[in-house]
Amino acid sequence: MNKRRLSVLASDNDVSGNLQNAALRRRSGSTAQSRHYKPLPTERLVITLLTATAMMALSISTHAAAPEIVPPAKTTPPQKPRAKTVRPAPKIEPPSMQSRWQDVQVAVGPTKLLKLSEQFERDFPFSAVDQQNQALQVCARKTLDIARTAGISSDFFDEMVGDASYKSRLKSAVRGDKEAAYQLALAYQEGTNGVTANARRAEQWLRFAADLNHARASWQIAEIYNLQGLIADAARYEKKAADLGYPVPLRLTNRGY
Which of 9, 44, 89, 156 has its CA 20 to 30 A from that of 60? Predict the structure, then answer.
């Protein structure tokens, strides 16, 4: 189709060119005519029509040959999956050193006291109460050793009995207070301070106080062991009482040593 239009355009151009050449020959060949020659009306009309036809054909061929520009299709970018919102866990503030030290101080049983004291030392090394804490550990270990030697179970110190005075003495005895331990033995002998009289518990606390180097308790536990026929234990604690300054009476004939 484009080739046919171009051939028509070429033929039209040839005709227009021939007419113009003929007109020029007429002007150049005739010296009698004026230099300002004007073409005939018919010639001007033919030239105008041919020029217009050529321009139209050129315009049509240009538009037909121009490629159609197709805009690129719009592409939607892939959507990223929404990340799940993770709420942070509530922040739990660690207990302060003061509150932890308070827990150590109010502990009663030697096992619990030793555990809390060691944890405090790990979490707060070189604290202002470090020496005091070390002393508590020594007392707790000694209490456990005495209880083990005397055949006293660790829950012996966790009995929820007695009045406020009894509980205060119990706490002190676990920390190595020999007088407090002796007063607990008397409470079980006499049935005071909110506890019921118990000869077995009185003997255990006398033994505990004696092992903490209480002189009178050493003598009294020696008397109990002598009555029970435990001659070796009786002699050992009687000697201990004398070494601690207790006025041991002269050995009677009814003693087995």
Answer: 44
